[in-house]
Amino acid sequence: MRGRASPPPGRREAVPFPCESSRHHDVLFNSSLFLLFALMVFPAVLATRHRVHNLVLLAASYVFYGAWDARFLLLLLGSTVVDYLVAQAMQRTDST
Which spans in 1-68 are helix H? Predict the structure, then answer.
């Protein structure tokens, strides 16, 4: 590779993250790919009932962030589960 120094002896060259790869398509909020994605998701949300469209938005979020870097999907899923359980616990304490 031109312009980059080779790694010191005994060290391997760093492998780029998937989002740094030249074949990766960035789905940024200001990209045309995101606009296409939003134009597919928005009618699906409008066509569903309140509880179901929350699930559609959740699934769309997983697809969106998974397209950026799938390694973070487990972290996102864990965060979703923790947030849901905490909200349920808060609701129980408010009801009593």
Answer: 32-46, 50-68
